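Example 445, ligand pyridoxal-5'-phosphate.
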Amino acid sequence: MADHPKSHLWPFVPSSRIIDVVRAHGVWLELADGTRILDAAGGAIAASIGHGRKEVAEATAAAMAETGYIVPTFLTPQRERLIERLRQSWLPKNLTRVHLSSGGSEAADAAIRLARMHHIATGNDSRWKIIGREPSYHGATALTLAVGGHRARQKGFEQYAGQFPKVPAPYGLRSPLGRHHRDEDLRCAQALENTIVSEGPDTVAAFMAESITGSSGGALQPGPRYWPEVQRICRQYGVLLIIDEVMTGFGRTGRRFGIEHFEIEPDIMFAGKGLTGGYAPLAGIYTTDNVVEPLAARGESLMFYTYGGHPGACAAADKVLEIIERDHLVARAAEQGDKLKALLDDRLANHPHVAEIRGRGLLWGIELVADRDTLERFSPDAGITNAVVGAGLREGAFFYPGGTGEVRDVICLGPAFTVSDDELEMMADRLLLAINAATLRQAAA
Ligand SMILES: Cc1ncc(COP(=O)(O)O)c(C=O)c1O
């Protein structure tokens, strides 16, 4: 297994494959052996303004020099500037309260705790269940894994996952009503209502979902009736609506947040990744006065994580958001996203193993199948996703593996918004080569 010369160092569980990155600039990673890799995924779909920006490094260094570490409950100039910017230019107007964590999983965990604490504070102690969706991913802490719907990552933790009810996420391509059936969105919304009723509404604290799924489903989007109906159901039964914008937030889908494509009004939203464009570990939990006031009335607070809202990370986030605003990068994500879609359609739409190319802005998922007419999947043993990612690296591009085990062979793209037209062409060309290499190898097996 561990035959790489550095596998005694990294990763934690030894692996034969190590990608040894020594430098990164724009959408390019430079490896120790001098090879250059086109980062078609912005790392874990986080790097949104391109690698190697000195401005961000300088802002972070200045904050480190000014304050170092300050306990999260205190205000610092960096925290204040970031929260002001978020409230002025980014967040929906009703999401006035901001809590900061160091990553998406922590943010999801804090959102769950907040929902539960809100219900206790309002005298609804019986409301503790969080309904999640399949497929979905909200993080790798024990609680967030359990609420999410990622079977592969839940392996061994099924008892925890079983505590929380799951409902289907709209999946047009594979709707049981028929491919892209117009009622798929209503079917899934109805499943939520049925689950709330069967569980007992007075036991349900919240419904948690990504506005557009990240890599678990590979940019699955609901039809236009889904979110309004879900919003209505949550309000009717007093269930808080928690929206995960960790992957889709801060411009990734060509709008500030995925919710803006659907006009959802979440009670709680959380988003990380693009908040710092990947430059520093930081995520935020954003909520309304209504959710927080009952806690304030009881003199309660939401327990912080030691490194939540670190001043250096806040300074990085403030600078990254300033750059996105100054250089109109949300609009650029939409424009480059349209170009990427056209290129993917051109190279892949008729490919015998491509079932669907889906996405928005610069978040794309390509679902591969053994048979595009029947949508039969490759066997899990074929390991198609890893084969495509491996072949991509050999072709000089990094694509992000998507899927949940059950949902599988979804390849995700999420480059920086600054990606050039030429780089988009290279990306599409290299993806075609990687898919061909993986699927031909499978056909020959
Ligand atoms: C939609 C979504 N939610 C939550 C998370 C967890 O975030 P993190 O890995 O920063 O803990 C991720 C990470 O990929 C994600 O894509």
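Summary: The two ends are 22 Å apart (CA to CA).
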